[in-house]
Amino acid sequence: MLGRENIEFIECREENDFIPKIPDKKLDIIYLCSPNNPTGVTMSKHDLEKWVNYARENEAIILFDSVYEVFIKDKDIPHSIYEIEGAKEVAIEFRSYSKLAGFTGVRCSFMVLPKELKIECNSRKIELNELWRKRQNTKFGATSYIAQKGAEAVYSEEGQKEIKENIDYYLKNAKYMRENLSKAGFTVYGGESSPYILLKSPKNEKSWDFFDALLEKGNVITTPRFRVWR
Ligand SMILES: *Cc1c(COP(=O)(O)O)cnc(C)c1O
After folding, report:
1. pTM across the whole model
2. Which of the residues 100, 164, 196, 228 has an alpha carbon 20 to 30 A from that of 152?
3. Is the C-beta atom of 194 inside 6 A of ligand 1?
């Protein structure tokens, strides 16, 4: 059974620019998200290589959430984990139309489960892709037709143009906030190749206290740090 006691939080701290730190023990399944929600930080090719190597050495599986891929503008940031050699043997990548095309709530996404990814089962190696296909065929009720038609339109010339305009608008806002918050003396992360900005509370106030102060004194709504299981 998977319970909280079996979940490890990967260290993601300011000292490491919020890049998840390779653990010193064996984990089985690793969830990574880049560009990240909520930190806005993106992982470089080198960062991802370290994780792919870790997964290969530890027979771990990486669940790579690249839902914010469309925001990547920096040419050195990989758009897919499969840009890393050997990733096909250890990584499952998933994407959603939620942030790409404003589909939040519409429920349409896809994932890549390479045939190279094998797991040991009763002392033989089997393709996880095969197991997943069986699971989907029996349990998944399919994406609604209207959502599929919407997703199809994302790839049309007009769809691509509209999406680009929307994403560029978010990125422009993020850049504006990043630049001006920095100028005003705040420490900020993200906001480049990502719609999110992580702001350090200036006097190390607790994020919920800072959130309250911004709301009450400045009438500004922000998102305090997510509650974690600790
Ligand atoms: C929004 C989001 C998703 C996509 O979720 P959907 O269920 O497809 O809407 C995935 N991962 C992260 C981190 C997100 O912020």
Report:
1. 0.94
2. 196
3. no
